[in-house]
Amino acid sequence: MENRVCRLLGCKYPVIEGGLAYVGNGLLAAAVSEAGGFGQVGSGGRTAEDFDRQIQLAIQHTNAPFGVNIPISEHRDPKDYFEVVKKHAASIRAVSLSAGNPRPLIGPLKEAGMIVMTLASTPEQARKAEAAGADLVICEGTEAGGHNGPAELTTMVLIPLVSDVVSIPIVAAGGIADGRTAAAAFCLGAEGVQMGTRFVATEECQAHNHYKRALVDARAEDSVVMERSLGHVTRVLRSPFVEQIWEQERQTPGDIETLLPMISGKRNAQAALEGDLDHGWLNCGQSTGFVQDVQPAGVVLRKVVQETASRLQEIDLRCRSWLQ
Ligand SMILES: Cc1cc2nc3c(=O)[nH]c(=O)nc-3n(C[C@H](O)[C@H](O)[C@H](O)COP(=O)(O)O)c2cc1C
Q: What separation in Å is there between the alpha carbon of 38 and the centre of ligand 1?
């Protein structure tokens, strides 16, 4: 599996832990990197001080390279977070930039010696990221948990279309949680995969146990979209609370004032960290359908890698006769 993604990120396997708002903690990032993948400390939902603390935890728990995620527009003052990144520049291998315009930030981060990864949900975004100097593009299909692009392209369609227009390595995200889905991503043209939902249901993740159990119990069709009336696509776990949000969206479509108290990050934290699923909502991708247990992150990673390798080998063997 050694390829351009592994070389850029300094990891053994091209499997990345996505930025996870509120629940992407330092111990989880360290566990993923320690097992040969590429962990990321999330800044989404954290104060700059907590982000700093989580990076320090990752540094204490692994010598393997890891990265950080910055959802640009979700921070009132992204500058504070970049200061933290600068402070730890010697320990952070890569920064992923999402939720906003990454272009002005790519140059300064690269000058500070970091690999820059940007999120894209259309081929055009990926092309612009490459033109602006991104080292790698993470292409996220609409199956993914959390905020998705408004075009709602699926991973299946997005990855091959992006591979037609960029030459930097592509990492596929959205709907990937086992060897079958990861192998499919490689067949589509990706050189790596990023998983979010699957890594929430791990022992090291700071998510509340109610969240982890809910992912194990959920079916793929329990991953639903809210905030459509606001022009957003936010993929969450269906629950009576999310149904109340839908009802409010029907009554006052697009009215941010009325909706904000229900859809705010505070409500996400209430469910994700405190386990109060009656008064908060949870990010959740369709890949929840593959989540069957809560395991150490290293066990999850190794299983995905082994399954991917044997699935690709099987396909190779099966198709060889077609070429003769
Ligand atoms: C709980 C959760 C929180 C997320 N928070 C962020 C975030 O803060 N920044 C970001 O770039 N992506 C975020 N995402 C997206 C993931 O990084 C990843 O791309 C996505 O989960 C991949 O799809 P999957 O859910 O099918 O694995 C989040 C996803 C989940 C499930």
A: 15
Distance between CA atoms of residues 99 and 303, nearest Å = 30
Q: pLDDT tens-digit profile of 155-178? A: 999 999 999 999 999 999 999 999
Together in a domain, 302 and 279: no
Q: How many domains does the chain have?
A: 2
CB 148 near ligand 1, within 6 Å: no
- Please indicate, yes or no, if residue 324 is contained in any of the structural domains: no
- The whole model's pTM is what? 0.97
Q: Is 123 in the pocket of ligand 1 (CB under 6 A)?
A: no
Among residues 197, 189, 95, the alpha carbon closest in space to that of 146 is found at 197
Is residue 288 lining ligand 1, measured as CB closer than 6 Å? no
Domain of 260?
A: 218-286
**C-alpha to C-alpha distance for 260 and 121, rounded to whole angstroms:** 25
Query: For the purposes of burial, counting CB atoms within 10 Å of the CB of 318, is it exposed (0-12), middle (13-18) or buried (19 or more)?
Result: exposed
pLDDT tens track for 42-75: 999 999 999 999 999 999 999 999 999 999 999 9
Cα(125)–Cα(301) distance, rounded to whole angstroms? 29
The verdict on residue 322 lying in a domain is no
Q: Is 287 in the pocket of ligand 1 (CB under 6 A)?
A: yes
